[in-house]
Design a protein that fits this description.
Layout lengths: L1 H9 L7 H13 L16 E7 L7 E6 L5 E4 L4 E5 L1 E8 L4 E8 L4 E5 L3 E7 L5 E6 L5 E5 L4 E5 L1 E8 L4 E8 L4 E5 L2
Parallel strand pairs: 1-7, 8-14
Antiparallel strand pairs: 1-4, 2-3, 2-5, 5-6, 8-11, 9-10, 9-12, 12-13
Length: about 190
């Protein structure tokens, strides 16, 4: 403040209407201008935002682990969470699959992780039926799915086998990203 007063007096701005100008300059320089501050408040500078989006938001489990501290955060699909700045290991547990990704959260910025390449299959059948899903054309078993439930699978073509006590039905389905394919057994 002393330097400002010395500058004003050394430039001859202390007489008449210049005094009004001097007072205004001092007031403007002495107050904090939050509207023009390009930085976030100090308490938010070490935080950023993290969001993870998955194909089946209600049942997918998402865990973000801060690489530096090891602290874990549980998120819901589409939720935006305030987290400390740093590198993160994202673990997404889909029904029969898991996906891992790495991301970096920067100060006051939002990092979005989107799990793509997965779609859903729903097999509508009687409740006591057994549903087995295989890779197409005689491939390995991918897993089982409960009847009338939605199962998340990587995009691709699958053989779906539905079995009852005295019957068996097979169908081929192509799983497309972010869609649900339905197989109906009557």
């Amino acid at each position: 403040m002393k330097n400002i007063i010395q500058w004003v007096t050394s430039h001859g701005l202390t007489g008449g209407s210049s005094r009004v100008m001097t007072v205004m300059v001092l007031l403007l320089l002495a107050t904090t201008s939050y509207a023009l501050d390009p930085y976030a408040p100090k308490e938010n500078r070490n935080l950023g935002f993290l969001s993870v989006t998955t194909p089946l938001p209600d049942s997918d489990k998402i865990t973000a682990t801060h690489v530096g501290t090891g602290k874990q955060y549980s998120l819901k699909s589409g939720e935006v969470m305030h987290v400390p700045v740093g590198d993160y290991q994202i673990q997404v547990q889909l029904q029969n699959n898991s996906e891992q990704r790495k991301t970096k959260v920067l100060s006051t910025e939002r990092s979005d992780v989107i799990i793509v390449g997965y779609g859903n299959v729903k097999v509508s059948a009687i409740d006591d039926a057994k549903v087995e899903i295989y890779r197409a054309n005689g491939g390995a078993s991918v897993g089982q799915c409960k009847p009338n439930a939605v199962c998340t699978l990587p995009s691709g073509t699958y053989d779906v086998e539905v079995r009852g006590k005295n019957w068996k039905v097979k169908d081929t389905v192509t799983v497309v990203t972010n869609t649900t394919r339905e197989v109906v057994v009557k």
